[in-house]
Amino acid sequence: MIGDVEDMEEIKKIKAADSMGALSAAEKKNAITSMIEKRNSAGRAAATVKTGGTEMERVNRILQNRIYRSCLQKIEECEKERIFCRHDMTHFLDVARLAYILNLEESCGIKKDCIYACALLHDVGRHIQYTQNVPHEQAGLPIASDIMQECGFKEPDREMILDAIANHRNAEIKGERNLKGLLYRADKMSRICFACKAQDECYKVVEKRRMEL
């Protein structure tokens, strides 16, 4: 509506100038072309805001990153006989979406792509835990750092994400309204222990299982 009003005002100016003979045919054509181009630019800008533009570009780079894809394949191979919760793309995206919802609900102000990157990378060291018995929140740090550097994440964002990954099993930070707290809570919320078919065999103590929404 605002754009339509602005267009009408611009057209009136062009007509007024034309009626006074102040515009040549070429100038009139240029004025109309300029008005159309401004309207198209405004439309493109609005579309960018609506769709998020390149907001998730760095995250999409992670998904295509050779190191990341290799780690996912190794984790999948290690977990092919696993009857408990798996650490796959379904889990990562569940965590990302839950963390982003919490971010909005709690007005934490964390950038969306940082939340998604953190969720995608928080278990990236799982295969090392399986094969070398190194806690994955530690084993995954250098891997996640290398991936983020390759995908365009600058140091402040990298440090924040790495800190969250390092602490995503640390219950002491679960109430914090920052990326660490968001990741911890979303990671736990993503598991539906109450509907798991492997409850009886689960290694987690009952107190740590999520048995209700």
From TrEMBL:
One Pfam family assigned to this protein is: HD
Which residue range or ranges hold the HD/PDEase domain? 84-201
SMART domains reported in the protein's UniProt record = HDc
Which residue windows are coiled coil? none
Stored InterPro entries: HD/PDEase_dom, HD_domain
Which named protein is this?
Answer: HD/PDEase domain-containing protein
Please tell me the species this chain comes from. Answer: Hespellia stercorisuis DSM 15480
Lineage summary: Bacteria, Bacillati, Bacillota, Clostridia, Lachnospirales
